[in-house]
Amino acid sequence: MDVVDAVGHGNSFLTQPHTMRNFRSEHPIRDRKYRHWQATMSTKMAAEAREEAKRILKEHVVAPLDKDVLKGGAALVRGYEEGLTRH
Q: Distance between CA atoms of 46 and 40, rounded to whole angstroms?
């Protein structure tokens, strides 16, 4: 029986012996900075992940919404506010 079939819908692969035997070799981190580094459960890795998340949040730029989307959103809010004042 295949591991996917054994787990089924809504269950976890973490309880499967196959996962425990293979998880370290199957999930290397694929990042230019850590190209040859295998994933390990360490405080160093957690600290580096935290710093990477901070960098992404600081540098990420969200594209502005289309003007039609903004107008539609404003119309929805206006309609909601008008509905509140009627009652």
A: 10
